[in-house]
Amino acid sequence: MSFKGIYSKLVTLFSFLLTILFTYTAVSKLNHLDLFQWRLERMPYISSYASLISWGVPFLELVIAGLLWFPKYRTMSLYASLILLGSFTTYIIVVLKYSESIPCSCGGVISVLGWRDHILLNISFMVLSLMGILWSKKQYNIQTNQNTVQ
Amino acid sequence: MKSNFLKLVLPAFAILLAVGLAFATEESNLPYVGYIATQSGYAEIQTDCPNLGEGYCYEGLDQVFNDSGLTDPKRTWD
């Protein structure tokens, strides 16, 4: 199998996993939107933006999940995944370090995870996004080189 | 053919799987019932503490319990 094939398959696999994660958490939030907003209102630092975040985050997650399947927007959506997951992970770490109140506002069955496990899960998906970005570029470079040779 | 599979079936499968999972695990997303001490005895509240982990669960300054007798402290992650 060529390197191009391997990179392409791996990026598709990462997109598949990220799509499941984002769609799952978005649907879990939208399913109980009032509950999600209630949880956000109790979170430190972001309570005043609860209404905006409660709509914005699931919407953003669904848009990213969709765009991951359009080759033209794949790299951009992988960057967006990395930024979204990175922001959330940074927020969790800041809250754990500097705040006494840490109510969970995570989606679905993920809320059963402890905070450390949650951070590990986020970091794992961030690594997938990062590898997806790097390999998308690599795949693009291989394609460009092949076109130049031909 | 193979390309169409990747372009259409795989994302559709991922989305259907995620939506199905979200509805299947809907219950775990709901808040739990807990009890806090008040001047008149106790009050029933909703909390996110899953009663797992080592730490004690608090809602603001109030410790949360599993029972209305306020004897069994609700647990949460440290």
TrEMBL record, chain A:
Keyword hit for Lipoprotein: no
InterPro entries, alphabetized: Methylamine_util_MauE
Membrane topology of this protein: Multi-pass membrane protein
Residue ranges of domain Methylamine utilisation protein MauE in the record: 9-134
Entry superkingdom: Bacteria
Record localization: Membrane
Main localization of the protein described in the UniProt heading: membrane
Keywords: Membrane, Transmembrane, Transmembrane helix
Membrane-crossing residue ranges in chain numbering: 49-70, 77-99, 119-136
Protein name: MauE/DoxX family redox-associated membrane protein
Automatic annotation (TrEMBL), chain B:
InterPro entries, alphabetized: DUF6520
Keyword Signal: yes
The entry's keywords: Signal
Signal peptide: 1-24
Highest taxon listed in the record's lineage: Bacteria
Protein name: DUF6520 family protein
Organism field: Flagellimonas halotolerans
